[in-house]
Amino acid sequence: MPISTKIDAKDFYKNLPTIGHETGDIWYGIPSFGMLNKNFVSAVVITPACDLSQNKSETVTILPIVSIFDYLHSKSFYGDVWNEFYSTLKQYGADDFLPKSKFSHPPKEKLEEVMQKIEGIKATANLYEKLKIYVEYINYTELPANDRKAITKPDLLKIFSPKKYDEILKKIFTNSYKSDIHFFPALLNAGEFSAISAHSVALFRYAYSIPVEILDAAQISSQEWWPKDCNDLSKEFPIISNFHNWPIKLSALKDDFLSDLLSRYLSMFMRLGSRDFTTHTINQFITEVKGGVTCI
């Protein structure tokens, strides 16, 4: 039986990133421009290597990287939490208070109404506790990032069973959970200068570009000089006003892991989709198949 080679986080990353820009560079202190519930994030560069090495591009395209904890408390995961409750709540009228989309929550007051109905009933005690955590989860996700530190984090293990939660994490770690995220293992032995300080994911659907000159300036700047550098560049690049923190390039992905990231990112957009059938049409098809309807 072949022996699998153990792969650790250190196998993912280069110890010393280059001075010049490269595909796979990992930066720390990049502004999220309000797209995420964090002011600043790490990010990985996905601009093609030839464009960077030959100065063909005036911008650098990046994918923001957030911790798995932050991902599990983001809009991308709201639908997964709701799906954990939906079938159980159908008997309490869940179809009348569905979330507006997979990226939103159900009305919190409706969940609280269900809790009032089942409170004190032994048979539904577990559901009551899960709904209580669900409401806490909604409250937590509605807070700005800076305010979240002041409250207790909701325990997702009380919503998902330990087995289900482990399955979700394992699929995230093996890039088989969703096609629009990519796993970055934590580099724990680098201290405060770790490029990835917690197990994280890159967000494919949040790609954005920034002027390459801003990162050029960051490469030769320092924490002390950065405010002056921002001021000097502000007229030509007004966007630099969002770069309150000095961006630092801390690492880069090694080639084989970079290839995997890029191929998965591109494959998500290469898929040529079509309009989906409506729920009504799908139900009609089910009825026809069950009824043995055929075309003559």
Q: Evaluate the radius of gyration.
A: 23 Å
The residue-averaged pLDDT reads 90
- Secondary structure: helix percent: 25-40%
CATH topology grouping of the largest domain: SH3 type barrels
- How much beta, percentage-wise? 5-15%
Q: What report would you give on this structure?
A:
There is one protein chain. The chain has 296 residues and is an alpha+beta fold. It has two domains: 9-66 and 175-270, SH3 type barrels (Roll), CATH 2.30.30; 75-153. Helices cover 38% and strands 13% of the residues. It is built from eleven helices and seven strands. Strands 1, 2, 3, 4, 5, 6 and 7 form a seven-stranded antiparallel β-sheet that branches. A hairpin with an 8-residue loop joins strand 1 (25-31) and strand 2. Helix 4 (108-118) runs antiparallel to helix 5. The radius of gyration is 23 Å and the shape is globular.
What's the arrangement of secondary structure elements?
Blueprint: E1 25-31, E2 40-45, H1 49-53, E3 59-67, H2 68-72, H3 75-89, H4 108-118, H5 125-141, H6 145-148, H7 162-173, E4 181-184, E5 200-203, E6 208-211, H8 212-219, H9 226-233, E7 248-252, H10 255-270, H11 279-290
Helix pairs in contact: 4-5
Q: What tags apply to this protein structure?
A:
SH3 type barrels; 11 helices; alpha+beta; 2 domains; 296 residues
